[in-house]
Every structure is written in structure tokens, then in C-alpha cells.
Amino acid sequence: MHRSEKRRHRLHVVAATAAFAAATAGCGEPYDDLLGVWRVTAHTENEAGCDGEGPAVAGPPYIKFIEGSFFGQEYAEYIACADAGTMCDEPGGLFGLLYAEEISGGVRAQLYASSGSPEDCVLSGTVSDATVQGGQLRIETRSRSQDNVTDSSCDPDDTEARWADLPCTRYEVIVGARI
Fold first, then answer.
1. Among the listed residues 160, 173, 163, 162, the one whose alpha carbon sits nearest the alpha carbon of residue 9
2. Three-state secondary-structure class, residue 94
3. How far is CA 115 from each of CA 4, 90, 124, 142, 167, rounded to the nearest angstrom?
4. Please, which residues have CB within 8 angstroms of residue 72's CB and are 6 or more apart in sequence?
């Protein structure tokens, strides 16, 4: 039986105690520092793995982080812009990278997918960390994939569970300055 490709975002909802909620009330979302327009100052892509940054790539000249919500889960998503924030791509929605999980210094987006059958499965995923330090944005995105997996349930949960062991196929870095 052949399954069609599944995609699922890991939008982690943090269950807070009343004391924690009271202590952090009014602090905003973990991605608030990302929102707005950024001029891209460096953009590299290594399509051979994650051992280091790759060569410089052209575009986009600007990116814009926008806020969204899906079934009550708030997130930030970046879109490419041709100018300082008015001529931008449409949001990717459920197929874009949705930054919602708080990490040290920023937020993370995760996308896990699978296709095929348990006897011949393709596991793939992307994890992207966006941080702001000293007024500088840094987005590091790693993609991992493996074909012909034969010992898999062939679902996105299996991709997530095997993430660290999947071969890295792409490493992209975007650095930007807020405008």
C-alpha cells in the first residue's frame, strides 16, 4: 500500500501553570523580536551537506516576518521581499516554515514528512532556527533526507524520531539587519 506524502508542523504548545502564566503575563510571544522587515546582508547555501556554510546565493534582498495563527497556536513566518517590505511573496501557510518553538535566543520551525510505504519509504524534514543577537538576525536551516528506508513506519513521527541520524542534504544561512 502506497501512502501519499504527509507533512506536519511541530507547533509545540506549552502548558503553563497559573503561577508561570502570572509571572510571564504581558511578555509577548517568543518570536516578537523577529517580526518586521530585515535587509539580507548575507545568504549562503550548502547543497552538499551541513559541514559548513556554502557559497553565497542571490536574493532575496529583504525578508519580512509576519505573525499568524493556526488553531490557536501563534507563530511567525518569513516571506521573501523584492523591496523593503511591500513587494513580498505570499505566505507559505501550512507548507512554509512556521516559527513557534522557543529555543535559546530565538525560535524554531520544524517540518517532517514521509512518503512511500514501510517497505520503501522516503523520510525528509527541515529544522530552522531564527535568532536575534545584538540586533542581527541569523536563520540557520538544515534539511535531512533518506531514500529507500525499509525499517520504518513511514510517517512524519518516524522522521522526527530519526532526525539526528538522517543524512544532511542542505544547510542554508540567512543573516539580516532590521530596517
1. 160
2. helix
3. 6, 26, 9, 19, 17
4. none
- Contact yes or no for 81/64 (Cβ under 8 A): yes
Task: Compare 5 and 87 and report the one with higher pLDDT.
Answer: 87
Which three cell numbers, joined as nine digits, stand for 51?
559541514
Per the listing, cell 556554502 goes with 54
Residue whose grid cell is 519509504 = 121
CB-based contacts of 152: which residues, under 8 Å, 6+ apart? 114, 118, 121, 123, 158, 162
Rounded to the nearest 10 degrees, how much is the dihedral formed by the CA atoms of 162, 111, 54, 149?
Answer: 40
Residue 82 phi, psi (nearest 5): -85, -20
**Going by DSSP bridges, is the β-strand pair 3-9/62-70 parallel, antiparallel, or unpaired?**
unpaired
pLDDT at residue 61 above 50? Answer: yes
C-beta separation of 145 from 124 below 8 A: yes
Position 16 scores a pLDDT of 22
pLDDT at position 123 over 60: yes
- The rounded distance, in Å, linking the Cα atoms of 35 and 68 is 11
